[in-house]
Amino acid sequence: MYKEAYDSTHGVSHIMGLYWDKLTADLLLAKGWPGLQLVELKEAEQQSLKESERLEKEIVEVRELKSKISTMTADEYFEKHPELKKKFDDEIRNDYWGY
User: Fold this and answer.
1) Domain range for residue 7?
2) Which end of the chain is more exposed for a tag (fewer CB within 10 A), N or C?
3) Which ranges of the sequence are coiled-coil (predicted)?
4) Residue 78 burial by CB count (10 A; 0-12/13-18/19+): exposed, middle or buried?
């Protein structure tokens, strides 16, 4: 009889322990536990660094284009942007002049 009671409470406490662990983790997340915030900040930092690299490359391209734009021909521009050449060719072929 005592063994059955002990086993039944041990099972409940084990289940309660699992529930409590999940609840504790959720509370720590909600309250902003410093360790979790640090992980989130490191992930945000990595994303920020990737975005910064992409933007720096784009800035270099824009500066290059700005310095060459006064002497650049349409053919030179379309070499770098073939999708625009295709768009313009399609518009001319379809007799659509941007109206």
Assistant:
1) 2-72
2) C
3) 38-65
4) middle
